[in-house]
């Protein structure tokens, strides 16, 4: 029997443990988390809790019962499902929570992110595309403008996911205006103030990454002069 | 409490407030409105009402309760959902209603539309493709012929969506035979006499834009000599 | 009130009027019949009836009530839905029925078919692909072999769909081994002994057309020497 | 009447006969088994049974009633559905069971697998992509590392599926670290210790094959130096 079941049982479809399951199914249909790839965490600010999808499982088949729950203040697990391992992404999700006060963090193995990491060097850059307006300014209220340049840092991949933490933390600090970090030959981390903002940013970024790949293939610069 | 609830509550799945929700889910699966992009408005001629999806929300999660309702004759809002903003597309939808007497207007961030706006100059042109026969003549009854040339004007994008109004109105007037306007690096506006016609035109145009991108990539002219 | 309702009302999901609706939804998700494109007809040999999807409607929204029913022996309509027009494909479906004794005929605006019609001249040809084994020999029992060459004739499009009849009939006769005809810049007609065979052939052919486009793009011959 | 019905009737959605149906629908939406292509088998170790999808049917429409059941120890059919033929893949599935003690084997006509078989010679190779970590070491416990090279042998296709058995058995033995074999111009066989592992490996491999095709098209080596 797993303790802490009261933390994930709810009739409310907006409960973090249920939302994680719903969003994982959505990500699966986009091809972002096939083959157990990717992950997601939602933070419940009110109760000081962090909900985490487990490691190495089929994301589209996750049930609330499979969700880990951590206390935010001391990062202690309040709920550890039997036979499951915590996500290796956990320190990375925590980086977004502690450095940026994020409310949710999404990690995918999006092929567009991987391809952009092969086509771009230190950063992915794109400007003058309407979809950029879905992205936040981050360092000040409001959203980016159409002609703003969206810059997403690309960090090098490491053998173990946990080892990404240092580079990810550094990228977050070096690029105070970003709400995402691409990991070369790996995928992307996207966070936001709330789970819905994180979801929207992830969709908008993936749209821009996919478009960026197509523009590169056609010889069209992704940044307009 | 939001007033005007009687305008959006209905058991009828064909009610405009419910159709907007259904079509937004459909558009989401096509990848046309991810990341809060795009929008849709339906006009109820009988009751002189305009129904509008709100600004900046996840289109696939819209509920009838989120719908704005405007009186057509004086463009006054009869229903304004709490905590939501009217769509920035509203003046553009109104242009289609007032200049063309449209019954619905769809706006998407279709990647094929964006790519065509990068591959074509002043207009997107295609001819001798069967799918063109789904398009209306506009200036006279009936549909286009297979060998007709479909011409869709491309206008330049602006920082704010509202600022597109002038160029959109001008394009509508300069191209009396068009039922759509592409916005460069942004997306497309498509309208029709009814919501179903608008939906069909939007699907047929997107098919032609996608095909146009592929033909360009293969070095095949989109207009046959 | 439309007469002949008893011909389309059934609790049986395998009834032709219900199958047409189900298959049109399936085709829509494949992108084969968006924008009212395409069509399908099923023949009920036992009762000597032909069921036909109507012209110019959204295929994914068709209901049994929208289905036309024709008597095979004299090609007289037994059921004509109010406000709908018979499909312009009807003479083409009849060609497959009368010349080949088909049990169903599918017409799509598949982009892979259109692209192949632009990349190939008189016929689409492919060999040495396993999926070819899903195709019938037609002129003798059994299926094609892996190393057989699948040859699908390509006919020129005409302004009106009905005008295709002569060329389609000729192609069917000139290529006795084919169970499909591509129409240049238009789409494809695929038929089979039963509705399920027609569906399977259509899927297998579309797979091969899509693969053929990709092979052409990579400079790989579709026919192996 | 078909005997052995008690072997496939179950209220448990995790019963092999029901899982095969569910997974075939999943594979269909990925485009891996359209046109009757592909197949799947699950082994019930506890009861010494093998469940097999039938030959040449629409995979997305399979019902538990269509499933063949074989006794593992003497490979005798305990259940043979009326009017259906056993899958031609059966000897290949058995090779994975007997040589590798697999718990399930999946066969698809994945276009990415076919394309990779045209772009690569004796083996498909890829390294330094995070998704590789979803793959097992096979010859020792645990999963592959990010920088490991995934090597999947490619065997030549034969006229009849059964004839692949020799080459498949040889490839399995020559490549003790592989959990999949690509068949040139045909598709792929993927197996695993359990049905879920086989499903995950198949998804991860297909992701890598798709990425491999894109990398080749962009002139990026799939193996990092």
UniProtKB/TrEMBL annotation, chains A, B, C, D:
Residue limits of the Class II aldolase/adducin N-terminal domain? 18-213
Listed pathway(s): Amino-acid biosynthesis; L-methionine biosynthesis via salvage pathway; L-methionine from S-methyl-5-thio-alpha-D-ribose 1-phosphate: step 2/6
Keyword line: Amino-acid biosynthesis, Cytoplasm, Lyase, Metal-binding, Methionine biosynthesis, Zinc
Where located? Cytoplasm
User: Where, in this chain's numbering, is substrate bound?
Assistant: 89
Question: Which residues of this protein are catalytic?
Answer: 130
Keyword Zinc on entry: yes
Matching Pfam families: Aldolase_II
Cofactor list:
Zn(2+)
Amino-acid biosynthesis as a keyword of this entry, yes or no, is yes
Q: Name one GO molecular function term.
A: methylthioribulose 1-phosphate dehydratase activity
Q: Name one GO cellular component term.
A: cytoplasm
State any GO BP term from the record: L-methionine salvage from methylthioadenosine
Q: Which SMART domains match?
A: Aldolase_II
Q: Which reaction does it catalyse?
A: 5-(methylsulfanyl)-D-ribulose 1-phosphate = 5-methylsulfanyl-2,3-dioxopentyl phosphate + H2O
* Cofactor info, note text: Binds 1 zinc ion per subunit.
Binding, Zn(2+): 107, 109, 186
Where on the tree of life does the source sit, at the highest rank? Eukaryota
Record family assignment: Belongs to the aldolase class II family. MtnB subfamily.
Protein name, entry field: Methylthioribulose-1-phosphate dehydratase
